[in-house]
Amino acid sequence: MGFWWVxxxxxxxxxxxxxxxxxxxxxxxxxxxxxGAAFGNMMGDKEASIKKFKVGVSNLDEGDLGSILEKDxxxxxxxxxxxxKPMNEEEMNKELIKxxxxxxxxxxxxxxxxxxxxxKLNLSIVSIPSATIPAVIxxxxxxxxxxxxxxxxxGMQLAAKGAAIEEGxxxxxxxxxxxxxxxxxxxxxxxxxxxxxxxxxxxxxxxMGVMFLLMTVVTGVxxxxxxxxxxxxxxxxxxxxxxxxxxxxxxxxxLFISSIQFLVIxxxxxxxxxxxxxxxxxxxxxxxxxxxxxxxxxxVLLGSLAKTEKSFSVAGMLAVQIMAAVGGSMVPLYVFxxxxxxxxxxxxxxxxxxxxxxxxxxxIIAEVVFEAAILIAIGSASLIAAWIALSVQRxxxxx
Length: 399
What we know:
Structural class: alpha/beta
Oligomer: single chain
Shape: globular
Number of domains: 2
């Protein structure tokens, strides 16, 4: 029994799970498209075009976040995408019947509390039959706002500290918040001066792409840990399968699945949304596959060390959200000073995102080889550490 058997087994499990396959393949493309369409029109991008629609908002929230979402996002924040009007539920039902509005959104009384505590949002979204896409966009705007609000405090604190050090004075969190509040209004992002500007659609494709790849790795590693908790791993221990072959098989299976997802993200956003990933196709694939290699190696290492799948899944998804926030997927890079953007490159997702943006800005493969080498080194070192950790555990179980 060799490592190819382990890799093939993991690949077949994912391939036969239609729900998992659809989530891995189509969900990233769908959400990237929604974000690009929602914010691209507002920013003047030409990649997407959705007809403006009307939304009625009934805000029952007892906290502040409902008012921020209603006024700053729906009423004032997206004038080219939608027009929103505050109203009560009775008025909303009448407007929907008359088809004066396309979508009705009801924010519950515990909206702010649910976001702060991480609980599930109980939203009520009602639409006319012909407004399927506007309803989906409305729902995803709310969920994107909720996710961003949950992690924005981290971004504001880091931005405030960084700005205070760089400017030599004490900048308040309120000033940092005013900077952070504009992150949904990105016009364009350029990594370096005198280079081609990166559109908002390109930015979201790269930012959401690296975040979804991290989520895929966390999901795959969770399955690996679940095997360790069950009899599957115990049966493998009494076989002739060595630690090295087991880890290599797990790594290759995860690498294959993540590589397929990366290819789907690149090709899907290019074909369906016209995203330009840069002139250096070789550079894009080098960075992408190097990033996948690095995070899969880290994932296998964490899978070797973690004890229970339940605790890892919760902690893993939380870590992904934090890494996405400080790495640029949620909080844009321009919020932070240049020196801080250099520091966060210790995170694989931040390094990959900034390198993708460099390629989109007109960079060539020679400019990204070093970053790709770092990502490969991270994956290789993690695999070695995972082999050592698993060997120690196996000796302990045999003692």
